[in-house]
């Protein structure tokens, strides 16, 4: 095993998937070896609080440019590709090909004809796993092949995303500008990117739920990215619209809300990673595969049927009441102490 070994990890291309790959990232960091994260440009901001010291090479989806970026980084570090080990978490041909063309020997799942591109092709587990477990399994297998410490057998119960202090300040500034108190509002995410097997991934009850909560004096806010503002306004026109935030600041914002209500989407996984309380709504996706990895998440619906507003509203109110009760108990205990 080379004494100057360097590790390279290709993270998935979607926000939620990057969040679900955090346990894999942590076990790679725990080796103590130099680690380079290769991911979409936005992932740098999302991971700023958990991987500030790691090299980052943006992957833009154009294989020639991505290969050139990796080779440039190798030159800058004075590293030889033969002394590197790559891990490709996505199943795509392109993610494995970029590492191969950059000369980095790589481990990854044996899928879609990728075996010829991988030095260490790994069979997927025979039993279907949650995405967090699947990527963690792959990571541990690769580390074992490389003779490196592979960490605990199972990922922990929390994803452990910690925004930076600046990201927390940005979230607080957005709330102050909107006149919202920390813990005094429900954050909804009434959008979702793309379709799942031709089906809309957005719960159709956001408008009705928002109006019902507002009628009870509960502030409801949303903070979509600029590209989703119009859709958010259509789906929940009476919700308060906050200015768009970077992913790290948005993660901090989820922890400032009393509750996050969202589809099974990137927002659900960001909220789970940051440790926010949430209600995640399913109608087209499988919660056992892509549900939020969090003990603080309530999941409603199924892959075949969205939950009704009449089911979601009482669940939201019960969680809000338990939050208020917990806050009062904490305040009472503090006063007694």
UniProtKB/TrEMBL annotation:
<keyword id="KW-0328">Glycosyltransferase</keyword>
<dbReference type="InterPro" id="IPR002201">
    <property type="entry name" value="Glyco_trans_9"/>
</dbReference>
<protein>
    <submittedName>
        <fullName>Heptosyltransferase</fullName>
    </submittedName>
</protein>
<dbReference type="GO" id="GO:0005829">
    <property type="term" value="C:cytosol"/>
</dbReference>
<dbReference type="GO" id="GO:0008713">
    <property type="term" value="F:ADP-heptose-lipopolysaccharide heptosyltransferase activity"/>
</dbReference>
<dbReference type="Pfam" id="PF01075">
    <property type="entry name" value="Glyco_transf_9"/>
</dbReference>
<keyword id="KW-0808">Transferase</keyword>
<dbReference type="InterPro" id="IPR051199">
    <property type="entry name" value="LPS_LOS_Heptosyltrfase"/>
</dbReference>
<dbReference type="GO" id="GO:0009244">
    <property type="term" value="P:lipopolysaccharide core region biosynthetic process"/>
</dbReference>
């Amino acid at each position: 095993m080379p004494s100057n070994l360097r590790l390279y990890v290709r993270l998935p291309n979607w926000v939620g998937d990057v969040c679900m790959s955090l346990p894999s990232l942590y076990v790679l960091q725990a080796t103590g070896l130099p680690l380079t994260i290769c991911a979409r440009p936005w992932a740098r901001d999302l991971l700023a609080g958990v991987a500030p010291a790691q090299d980052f090479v943006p992957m833009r989806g154009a294989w020639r440019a991505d290969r050139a970026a990796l080779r440039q980084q190798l030159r800058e570090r004075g590293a030889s590709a033969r002394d590197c080990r790559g891990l490709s978490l996505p199943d795509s041909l392109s993610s494995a090909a970029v590492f191969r063309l950059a000369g980095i020997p790589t481990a990854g799942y044996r899928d879609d004809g990728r075996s010829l591109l991988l030095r260490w092709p790994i069979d997927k587990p025979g039993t279907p796993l949650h995405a967090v477990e699947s990527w963690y399994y792959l990571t541990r297998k690769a580390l074992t092949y490389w003779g490196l410490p592979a960490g605990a057998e199972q990922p922990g119960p929390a994803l452990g995303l910690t925004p930076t202090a600046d990201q927390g300040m940005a979230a607080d500034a957005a709330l102050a500008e909107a006149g919202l108190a920390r813990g005094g509002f429900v954050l909804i995410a009434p959008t979702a990117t793309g379709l799942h097997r031709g089906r809309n991934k957005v719960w159709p009850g956001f408008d009705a739920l928002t109006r019902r909560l507002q009628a009870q004096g509960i502030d409801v806010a949303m903070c979509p990215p600029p590209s989703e503002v119009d859709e958010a306004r259509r789906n929940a026109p009476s919700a308060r619209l906050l200015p768009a935030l970077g992913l790290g600041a948005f993660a901090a914002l989820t922890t400032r809300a009393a509750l996050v209500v969202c589809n099974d989407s990137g927002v659900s996984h960001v909220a789970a990673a940051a440790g926010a309380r949430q209600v995640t709504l399913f109608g087209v996706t499988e919660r056992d595969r892509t549900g939020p990895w969090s003990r603080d998440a309530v999941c409603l619906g199924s892959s075949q049927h969205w939950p009704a507003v009449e089911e979601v509203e009482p669940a939201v109110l019960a969680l809000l009441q338990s939050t208020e009760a917990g806050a009062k108990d904490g305040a009472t205990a503090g006063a007694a102490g």
